[in-house]
Write a structure and sequence with these properties.
The chain is of the alpha+beta class. The protein has helices spanning 3-23, 112-121, and strands spanning 33-43, 50-59, 64-75, 78-85, 88-90, 94-106, 127-136, 142-151. Strands 1, 2, 3, 4, 5, 6, 7 and 8 form an eight-stranded antiparallel β-sheet that branches. Strand 7 and strand 8 (142-151) form a beta hairpin.
């Protein structure tokens, strides 16, 4: 093989890799939008306690798989609950509605009736959430994302 052929081969490889990376954006999760969220069911007396949530999501990119979703909801600086949910699969290039069953665990020092009072008040102005999740795209690339002090009142806008 001649030196000129090797250079041409390397140029072709670099061009193909560049085109593949441009076509297969490594960050499709950044385009994901939560358009609406609503509570469908709250059962704090079950074992384990759970909340059914309906999310309307807009995903203009490729299919995403979101795993290891966990976090906590706070009132001011006091943690009210910790939560964990199963894997969510969001279809590509769509606006979809996803049902999620979220397991809820009371934080230390918080009672069920205190939490019920917060839910019944429906005042989201002083509630915030810390959420972490792992996003896996169609290439199998996993990224751990964290959102801290997300104001729940922003969901209603």
């Amino acid at each position: 093989m001649y030196l000129w052929d090797v250079k041409k081969f390397i140029d072709i490889i670099v061009t193909v890799l560049t085109a593949a990376l441009c076509c297969c954006s490594c960050n499709p999760y950044r385009k994901l939008e939560v358009r609406d969220a609503s509570l469908k069911e709250v059962n704090l007396f079950a074992n384990p306690s759970y909340i059914e949530v309906e999310l309307k999501l807009y995903n203009p990119s490729r299919e995403l798989e979101i795993t290891e979703i966990q976090g906590s909801v706070k009132s001011g600086q006091q943690k009210l609950v910790h939560f964990v949910t199963d894997t969510l699969v969001i279809p590509k290039r769509s606006e979809s509605t996803v049902q999620a069953r979220v397991q809820v665990f009371l934080a230390d020092g918080v009672g069920v009736f205190q939490l019920m009072r917060v839910i019944q008040a429906q005042d989201l102005s002083n509630l915030s959430a810390d959420v972490s999740a792992t996003v896996k795209d169609f290439l199998g690339i996993r990224r751990r994302k964290e959102i801290l002090d997300f104001k729940l009142s922003e969901l209603t806008k």
